[in-house]
Amino acid sequence: MAVILLTVIVVLLPLAAVTSAVPSIGVTYRHPSAARASPEEVAATVQRLKISSVLLPNPDPNLIRAFSYSDVSLLLSIPNSHIPILAANRSNAAAWLYTHVVPFYPRAHISAISVGSDVLSTASDLSDSVLPAIRNIHVALHELGIRKISVSTTFSLLNTLTTAFPPSAAEFQPPVHDVLVENLLDFLQEANSSFLINLQLYDLYRLDHEIPIGFALFQEGLFNFRDDLTTGVRYRNLFDTMVDALLSAMAVAGHENIPIIVTETGWPGSLNSEGGVDEPTDACQVFAEMFLSGLVKHLKSGIGTPLKRDGVSEVYIFELFDGEMNQSRNGQVLQWGILYPNLTKKYKFDFSGSSGGYGFPMDAWLVLLLAFGHGIVLMFGLLLTPATAPAVRRGDTESTVWWDRVWARRRSCRWDGVAQGGGSQCCGARQRLGGRLVSERPCLDW
């Protein structure tokens, strides 16, 4: 009976899903020197692969020019080293625009500018300069009569949030919130700009050994889920978990309606060992293809995330070519490129959502069956067990009041762990993803 009921649920769930706008899927193009082709050839290849958008860190004017008269949308990222200069006065901001935007716009479709990336994790303290630099670029654009290019800055989720799971418990780390995020969110709301975030999904998977590999790779399986007991939401992949964690943190800050752009996510297809370090088996092309195919399929489905029907507006896959200066960790240099230097594809997936059909490896399924055997029956029971709270989605009419009540209660908490006007403990901090310990108490007694 349980099996029959499970079959009915599996059949009906896709019919009940309500799709929304499909996000734009692009790539990061960091290293022009890694390609053996000219900027024009790279731009032509991007269009041939039906890649709709490209993120250009430290944008080269010649490369921007190569995308003129194309349908490819460009997100330009200004290097962190430029931030103090841009913050100093508006003339410097205008000078940067006259070099990187004015000669090409609107022939080149420049949609957004990121003033710096992950500035809070850099050695130099740029936090006080980021927002003035953003405002100077924004005002300079308007003075030039350009009003369709949004301006923001890029954060790293691992260095910004207190936790990624459960998503309902996520908040901005107190120093981040106090120094930059609070005022930035107000600006983004006023300017109709987006919150830009790097989702280092592979790094989080490596840090948290409790995350199943299938959960990280968008594989559908009996054991590839994690439940948020506060909201009753069952998460089927790590990407949605991280996005909803950011959404929850933004909601606590009072700005859950600001659009989200994922400026970096991916999976390494290989690595180079420089110090005799054993290579982890999860940095391989098979897993990279599974992740990329699953990501594109998930985004193209238009179902959003459990807490946000519209999901994210754009996602940038890291990266077009293998980087020459990727960060080493324990003697390992990860390679993330989806193209070889000669512009041929490494993987079978394409940006339309179809793929070469990589599923979870058969030997992995055999291991699961042998290891858990009779436990599969138990898993059927768990799948049919009601959640502890209503599984609601922000944006659904019937759930909006419930979500507003939950987030409003969390907003009433101060960072020191004392409820405003109450006196009872409300917000206990948690282990931060960046490695700094705040506290081990749950945020709220729901």
TrEMBL record:
Recorded GO MF terms: hydrolase activity, hydrolyzing O-glycosyl compounds
Pfam families according to UniProt: Glyco_hydro_17
GO biological process: carbohydrate metabolic process
Keyword Membrane set for record: yes
Residues in the signal sequence: 1-21
Keyword Transcription: no
TM regions (residue ranges): 364-384
Family, as annotated: Belongs to the glycosyl hydrolase 17 family.
Protein name as annotated: Glucan endo-1,3-beta-D-glucosidase
Organism: Carnegiea gigantea
